[in-house]
């Protein structure tokens, strides 16, 4: 949703309600995974993944892209990814170092954003690469959960899930490098123009 101009003025619209609903499902998913209800957790993940596709598609088609939607969409995605990573690592489906690798990516980006003013952050938008990385990870998680189940379904789901996980992780860091290059360009432009903001304004 972040790649499109803000065209809608109504905050209460169907795409935003879908994003908010996805956000509300995060604690539901966390409880299910802690209770060992993998089947229901997979179902929640699938609903979340479909709603992630649907809210962006509807917002673009109906011209209902809003600032609120642009905020809710990535927040819901990040919370799902973080919750799922912790749940999968807790159940030893994935190693903890993979969790740290993905969290480190977001930590690096947050660090770069904190070096800018609010105005300087505007050019940094969600890229197609970042959306593709998120989609791969959201596909990987339910497959990895299914892969933890013994049987033919698990045998098929596990390698496919790991393939999506590696694609998603690689694209996740690739998109981060693009964001960092944009951030470096913004900071370099500030240095060239000698418009360093007053101390305390940087974190916005």
From TrEMBL:
Signal peptide: none annotated. It holds the Pfam family CDP-OH_P_transf. The keyword Transmembrane helix applies. It is a multi-pass membrane protein. The chain crosses the membrane at residues 24-50, 128-147, 159-180. Its main location: membrane. It is found in: Membrane. Keywords: Lipid biosynthesis, Lipid metabolism, Membrane, Phospholipid biosynthesis, Phospholipid metabolism, Transferase, Transmembrane, Transmembrane helix. The keyword Mitochondrion does not apply. This is CDP-alcohol phosphatidyltransferase family protein. It comes from Kineosporia corallincola.
